[in-house]
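Bump. Still looking for Membrane magnesium transporter structure tokens.
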Amino acid sequence: MPATTMHKFITFLGVMSMLHAAYSAAQHRSYLRITEQEFTTLPIDILIQGIISLFIVMYGVMYIAGDFKEIRAVVDLENKSWETLRNLPSFQTFNHRGKSLSPDFL
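Sorry for the wait, here they are.
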């Protein structure tokens, strides 16, 4: 399934919401330092916003990233013939010393 503009917009909103939750957490910590209170935990609204934003971003990224591939290599290799599998272009050399033994070599 290709990524649509809607999926990109959802991901953008999720990232913005996550950045807002991070900014709110930093602002809360700054407030606690100013009022000389001890930090125990973040307020529940910041935690919920961060968790929901994380899931929204994960949903959007799954559609933007494209189709997943199978982990097993056998699945990709089932569709190839034996000749294709033996074709190793990194071992093909065309400039070798046998060329100098040829009578047509100049």
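The mean pLDDT is 83.

Edit: fixed formatting.
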